[in-house]
Amino acid sequence: MAGYIGRFAPSPTGPLHAGSLVAALASWLDARAAGGRWLVRIEDADTERCLPGVGEHILQQLAACGLVPDEAPVWQTARVDRYQAALTRLIDADLAYPCGCTRREIDAALAAQGIRHDRHGERVYPGTCRHGLNGKPARAWRFATWRASAPLVDWTDRRLGAQRQDVLHEVGDFVLRRADGPWAYQLAVVVDDAEQGITDVVRGADLTDNTPRQILLQRAMGLPTPRYLHTPLVLGANGEKLSKQNGAAAIDTGTPAAARSALDAAAQALGLPAARLEDGFQQALAGWVAPWADLYNPAP
Fold first, then answer.
1. What pLDDT score does 1 carry?
2. How far apart are CA 273 and CA 236, in angstroms?
3. Where are the domains of the chain?
4. Over the stretch 12-50, which tens digit does the pLDDT of each residue have?
5. In contact, 256 and 280? CB cutoff 8 Å
6. Residue 24 per-residue DSSP state
7. Does domain 80-177 have CATH number 3.90.800.10?
């Protein structure tokens, strides 16, 4: 791949918390260690979950920590025509189909097969609508994983090493768009990464199992596959990952001292050495680039 381009792509469902700042700092350091560019993309395609003004607030939080993108941020809501074009290509290639199933119907179909859906596990789509809607209205468009040339995906994570997922049997035919509604993360992120020329994706380890789905879509649309690095998760007191869904507190960037404290905590979570308290933001950030490169050796 020519010329490193990385990105941080938060969803504006809430302000940055400690875990999301770790991902932001890691992606920034990886780009700087490779001598590349760092972009920010506000992933607001799921308009039902995103909150007004939060995207702008996230950008302010990043800037308060010295993390400023090399280009103007991109907003997914300004790019819906690209997602529609990608979906149309998949439909024309017989790699996407309409689905009329509700979650309750999917759970009932899985139960009839003796499969119980774990609350934290993947709801594997049983393929009910693969050959037609049977009179039901379309509720979503799904990727025809069963038609993919190689649904058993092998890939290598720069931190976690060799990975494998049988997408057909572990995930099934995943959603690309809810009918006449929000675009699914999987499709939007693949289209955006390709159009922005992203060579390296650095993000939290909770998104590791999304990667094979994205690789399948990249292959189906003839798009390049970036290198991936999934960072360690920041856990709460209950042992679960910090997230907006479980009420993770927003990082405090209201004063330079508070922002610096949040940034230092993110660096510590990544295993980086402590920066001197007297260093400014840019000095501290620059001082972490070489240790990051020693840990992860980003390719230029």
1. 42
2. 22
3. 5-78+197-213+222-297, 80-177
4. 988 999 999 999 999 999 999 999 999 999 999 888 888
5. no
6. H
7. yes
Cα-to-chain-centroid distance, residue 193: 10
Annotated binding site: 7-11, 43, 99, 101, 125, 129, 185, 203, 244
Annotated binding site for Zn(2+): 99, 101, 125, 129
Take residue 193 and report the two structure tokens written for it. 């990464």
Asked if residue 206 has pLDDT above 70, the reply is: yes
Q: Find out whether 126 and 171 touch, Cβ atoms under 8 Å.
A: no
What DSSP element (H or E) covers 29?
helix 18-33
Fold of 5-78+197-213+222-297: Rossmann fold (3.40.50)
226-249 confidence digits (pLDDT tens): 999 999 887 655 555 555 555 568
The pLDDT assigned to 134 comes to 82
**Is the dihedral angle over the CA atoms 53, 58, 59, 63 positive or is it negative?**
positive
Binding-site annotation, residues for ATP: 244
